[in-house]
Amino acid sequence: MPVCLIITPHMATWNELFSDERFIESLPQPEVYKFVRKLEGIFPDRPLILWDLCCGAGRHTVLLSQMHHLVYGSDIAQNGINHTQKWLDGNGLKAELKVADMTVNPYYGIHFHGVLCWDALHHNTREKITKSVAHVYDNLVRGGLFMVTLLSIKGGAYGQGCEIEQNTFVKNDGFEAGVPHHYFDERDLRDLFKAWKFVILAEQVYSYLETEPDFHLTNPFPYTKWNVIVQK
Ligand SMILES: C[S@@+](CC[C@H](N)C(=O)[O-])C[C@H]1O[C@@H](n2cnc3c(N)ncnc32)[C@H](O)[C@@H]1O
């Protein structure tokens, strides 16, 4: 493994981005809505108890609350949590929110029917991702579901930055400078969820054949990644 010189100049962090409305995703993913409908079909309990892990600026926390469930959210970015709280308040909605790193368990003792983590869990080293997944497992009821998206080694950004461990890269520039990104192959992914039952394991592969410079700034299409639902 090469020795990496990681220079992290002062670039915008997630926290800074969440203080600027231009960088805030206002629409939830339809997949999250369908995931909640799936949970409603499995569990007769109402409300369901749900955790939006790495909730960001709150688009899914708000959706889950609008769907009349008991919602918990957590994220490392204080501004994301602040934005989520304001969004909830402005719509007369409620959720319990905490600033927390994914490697700590902010809701120890709370038993969730479902947990989701959209486009965030890969922002770490492999060991720390394992730790986060273990907290999710501990907090789920038996039969509870975890929906998560993770980066694939087939993704276009694979290999960018400095490889600090196998398949984990840290970029030196951009708003994610200094943030690790772990890319999974199938074996690694199956290993991460070896204690779980796979409900859905899907690799969504997108090949961009023609693009303009900086197309990703306004790209309406998805990127290559793993889409996973696992059951405790
Ligand atoms: C691409 S955003 C996704 C946010 C949200 N899940 C969504 O779909 O809108 C990635 C999120 O991961 C959060 N994040 C990154 N590293 C984290 C960590 N170590 N612990 C908790 N949250 C983290 C960021 O603050 C950011 O909110």
Structural summary, described in words:
It is a single chain. With 232 residues, the protein is of the alpha/beta class. It has a single domain, classed as Vaccinia Virus protein VP39 (Rossmann fold). The protein contains six helices and ten strands. The chain has helices spanning 14-17, 30-42, 59-66, 78-90, 126-139, 186-192; strands at 49-53, 70-75, 96-99, 112-117, 140-152, 162-165, 168-170, 180-184, 197-204, 225-231. Strands 1, 2, 3, 4, 5, 6, 7, 8, 9 and 10 form a ten-stranded mixed beta sheet that branches. Helix 3 (59-66) links the parallel strand 1 (49-53) and strand 2 (70-75). The longest helix has 14 residues, at 126-139. It starts with 13 loop residues before the first helix and ends with a strand. S-adenosylmethionine binds next to helix 3.
CATH A-level architecture: 3-Layer(aba) Sandwich
Q: What's the average pLDDT?
A: 93
Order of helices and strands: HHEHEHEEHEEEEHEE
Largest sheet: 10 strands, mixed
Work out the helix count.
Answer: 6
- CATH-assigned homologous superfamily: Vaccinia Virus protein VP39
Question: Which structural class matches the secondary elements?
Answer: alpha/beta
Tell me the count of domains: 1
**How does the overall form come out from the CA principal axes?**
globular
Amino-to-carboxy terminus distance: 35 Å
Strand content: 25-35%
CATH topology: Rossmann fold
Determine the fraction of residues in helical runs and give it as a percent range: 25-40%
Pfam family, one: Methyltransf_25
Protein name: Class I SAM-dependent methyltransferase
Keywords: Methyltransferase, Transferase
GO molecular function, one term: methyltransferase activity
